[in-house]
Amino acid sequence: MKSQKQPRIDPEFLINRRGLQALLFSSIKLMEISASVIVRTESLPWKLGLSHNVWALAQTAQLLHTRIGSLRVKEVRPCPATRDYRDFIDRIANLSDPVREMGVLTRLAYPDLKASVDRYRARLLSTDEVTADCLDQVSTRLTALYSADVDPASLAPECAETLARSGGALPATDAFREEMHPGPAEEFFTADLNSLRVIPARPGRSSQFTEAKDGSTKETAFGYGPAFYDFAFRIELCATEICAAMLAHYVDAPWGLRHDLAKQLRDEARHFELFISRAEELGTKLGALPVRFEVWDNFILGESLAERLIIEQRIGEGIALDSADDIYARLKESGEEELALVFQYVTADEITHVANGNKWLRSLLGTDDAVNALEKKVMNRLIRHKEGRVYKHPINVENRRLAGFHEDEIESIRREQSPDGSDAGA
Fold first, then answer.
1. Which of 320, 123, 290, 118 is nearest to 207 (CA)?
2. 335 and 399 belong to one structural domain
3. Which end of the chain is more exposed for a tag (fewer CB within 10 A), N or C?
4. Among 149, 179, 209, which residue terminates a domain?
């Protein structure tokens, strides 16, 4: 039997593919480190600024992922250009100080990635229009990265030395051709550089914000200002940090899931900005009220990626879908016309988030039965933690259907809401 003839691939073609793999590696790892800083930093401006960066880097990675996938590969694998650059990324992840990490990101890593992309774009052959267009789009996204004002003293000299030794995410032409040989990428490939090895009991908060006392469910002040303030901190900011934690901690999750989480991270930060802006317009200033961590506390009860997706996407955001129409109606009745419309857009985002959670849970666990069994286990844990029922709002059937819940799942939630058998909602 004759052996199958292997396709001939030009070495220049292979080198081009490896170059894109190197840029993909840098984009994904800087996204993870940026997400890790979001979780741990006490700076609210940094959290919000980095939410833009995480999404921009995810878009960059998606563009590169798509282009690499069209270059005759069975699997798209990020791959550092050199061992020294891999060590540079590892050094940042091991700093364990969000201030120093932010300094290295904004002063070294982000500018280097942008320069590497532009340098690589300039040396492309004129026939490679598709890669050129890809890199033009990548460069545009990297141009807009948020850069914090960080004291130069916070920079880590060992990181700067390692980056200089590596030549960057993609070294100049000669060094690139020496190390980026057209052989297998496995010897350089690594996926275990975890920038958030342990998910903390609390995300970072400035001393400007005090935590609400245990057991408190309502603030002493009333009105929409305090309500929007509570929505912003208890729900939206915690949801931003939850997405960041899953991105930085579960580095071996499927790329499509991670891309969806990066988009959700920016959505949640945008929701925070909308709510806190309206709260301030109504007289509730930053630091005026204590903040709560109910959503984060629920999240950390999960013991795996699937459990945490269930807690955040199916249960937490699912409950938000149930209350959405009621909140919208109350805003309209109170004359909050603009915020009522904003809330409808927020709800549209949440439907997408829940739908993504349903999609990926079914992909990770394999069957609806497996998803429902794990959800029941997680729900019992939440009930014990909360010492009471989890579902408290009449179910919004249409929103649940749009978010990918099956009819039997909706009926199950009805029973959970109304254990005595009465109708829990329409």
1. 290
2. yes
3. N
4. 179
pTM of the model: 0.91
Q: Of 352, 193, 198, 380, which is closest to residue 261 (Cα–Cα)?
A: 352
Q: Are 228 and 173 contained in the same domain?
A: no
Per-residue pLDDT in tens (0 to 9) along the chain, 426 residues: 555 665 676 777 788 888 999 999 999 999 999 999 999 999 999 999 999 999 999 999 999 999 999 998 888 989 999 999 999 999 999 998 999 999 999 999 999 999 999 999 998 888 889 999 999 999 999 999 999 888 877 788 999 999 999 999 999 765 555 555 444 444 444 446 788 999 999 999 999 999 998 644 444 445 889 999 999 999 999 999 999 999 999 999 999 999 999 999 999 999 999 999 999 999 999 999 999 999 999 999 999 999 999 999 999 999 999 888 888 888 889 888 888 888 899 999 999 999 999 999 999 999 999 999 999 999 999 989 875 566 667 889 999 999 999 999 998 888 776 644 444 433
Tell whether 328 and 381 lie within a shared domain.
yes
Cβ within 8 Å of residue 100, ≥6 positions away: 154, 155, 156
- Indicate if 168 and 254 belong to the same structural domain: no
Domain that holds residue 114: 11-179
Structure tokens that stand for 419 in this block: 């254990």
> Rounded to whole angstroms, how far apart are CA atoms 265 and 58?
11
User: 212: number of CA atoms within 13 Å, CB side?
Assistant: 17
CATH code: domain of residue 265: 1.20.1260
